[in-house]
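Researcher: Predict the fold of THO complex 1.
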Amino acid sequence: RQQLPETHTGAVPDPVPVLEGSGQIQKLSDSNFRRHILVQYLILFQYLKGQVKFKSSSCALNDDQTTWIEETTKLVFQLLRETPPDGDKFATMVEHMLSTEENWNAWKNEGCPSFVKERTVDEKPKRPTRKRQAPEDFLGKGPDRKIFMGNDELTRLWNLNHDNMEACKSDSREFMPSLDEFFAEAIEQADPANMVEEEYKVVRNPNYGWRALRLLSRRSPHFFQPTNQKFKSLADYLDTMVCKLAKELPKDLPSEEIKTGEEDDDDNGDNLLKESNDSPSIQSKLVTNQQMDDIAAKLGAQWKTLASHLEMKAAELREIETDSEDVEMQAKLLLVSWQDREGTQATVENLVSALNAAGFSQIADGLSEA
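Model: Structure tokens for THO complex 1 follow.
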């Protein structure tokens, strides 16, 4: 290997010669190779100058050697800046990485101390001065222990009641309508005698249908009752629900007047109207929703005893147990399933017979008196 000649200026010669196969030394213009060699020089110079914990004392540099390394380092950075492409940018990144490496060596020499500084007792942050009044400074002040809310109107509204949470539970705060109030118009329109066309019924209104579904989910057990019947639209579903509610809710007209879709023609509707006028006691024989609530509360966990006398299938009982864990709600679902299956035959007389057969004579007597 041919020795590199020294320059009179002391500068490092261009360190990119390689030995070709022919034995002649040629200078390459490969920037990657040039940068690789120059960066290695910088790493070596940093190690020789730096304070390394495990470096032998015999490796210390004298003043002349230190001066030469500093001057040569400047020349190497100058060569890096002159080497394309993006020489200035590359030299800046190398200088930054070497500075980071120097900080890392200093941290290791100090024994790798923790970066988290322990806070002394005197350096604990002081609690900032509170600009606003604390609640205890303005709540319940004055002769009437009023709560001042910032202005007279808010103060008046807040102090209408001493216990606002109890006031929210008051009956006057109940804005949800009952089933009979909300569906009164729909039940009336379902009566064939009123001759209301389908397109003008309230159940065809999407807004009304949306509110009806929300009310049914909160008030009616029929909403969660499983069924195999398929509906083409929301209006068809509401028509069915209106017919069921008409049988339960107390009305002046008999529930048989409501069109259920089972009539063959208008003559049958007229016949039902005549029969209902002749027999005003039919409405009283149909089991109402309130009666089912009372019976469910009395049955409780014994509802399965009644289920066998209502001829309920085992699969239906499993569905009821799956739908709710509350025994009172299970009893209510049992009666609702029986009512949906029996239809117009879900009368008080039939339910009383089933209760007597199941051994619930007291509940049957109470239902008969009602």
